[in-house]
Amino acid sequence: MAGYPASVRIREVGPRDGFQNEPEVIATADKVRLIEMLVASGLKRIEVTSFVRPDVIPQLADGAAVLAALERPEDVAFSVLIPNERGLDNALRERERFDEISVFLSASETHNRKNVNRSIAESLDGLERVITTAIAEGLRCEGVIATSFGCPYEGEVSPERVLGIAERLAAAGCAEIGFGDTTGMANPLQVDGFFTGMRSQLGAEGPAGPELTAHFHNTRGQGLANAVAALGQGIDSFESSFGELGGCPVPAGSTGNIASEDLVSMLHEMGIETGIDLEALLAASRAVQDVLGRPLGAHLLSAGPVDWEPGGVGG
Ligand code: ZN
Description:
By secondary structure, the chain is of the alpha/beta class. The protein is globular, with a radius of gyration of 18 Å. The protein has a single domain, classed as TIM Barrel, CATH 3.20.20.70. It is built from twelve helices and eight strands. It has an eight-stranded parallel barrel with strand order 1-2-3-4-5-6-7-8, surrounded by seven helices.
């Protein structure tokens, strides 16, 4: 039987991974209100926006305004997604308002080219400069590797290739490496083998190794099964989106991250601590559903939390 971690850390990425991929542009005030509700639910890590070119992703053109309006409790880490050096320069104007950056590239050449119009080698060179500057500014860095488990254009992505990229990011100074199943191609058996190798090869068991984070999309409904497989390999850091918001710009039709409330519900039912108030998180998901004016994919939004005392009074 797998030994699961006693507690996990969850980074809510809905305000970035989610809002960027919804067709609507959400008003800045609504974003701020929703992020504040996420903070109130007990989430300690939130990716609040990104500094991408506003003509490319108009949904997040107000990144600086969102940061400026947000109050950041001391025990909450806000992160921003940084595509390149220019994005970091823009973000650094708000330096006092966030704690971490995420940088990203794909493990597949074709996906990387379609997503950021660079080769993997070019991406790594640029990101190493971004990471160096960010660390000098006292920022913590997460390197996210998209299409770590498979590519919609190239098919299989070898774990050795992912490992090579992860090693470069860790050597550049990333304290955390995120592995994205960007278009939901992974299965639990694959995830199990992937993290067995990755943990030992990246030295993640030791205190000096990077934190390893799993970032699953629910494109084919296997997101939570993959999360359990990762848990079984001792992975205790996850990224998810409230409401199951999100997707990926390429290819079209990629659907959302695993829903934060579905993940939290499952973990709590398994006796694994998250520090998150599920009802408060659900309130944030209902609020974003209202803002968007349509039902979102999270199961908990329709089913609600498990009730072990149906019909019971009080409690
Ligand atoms: Zn994602």
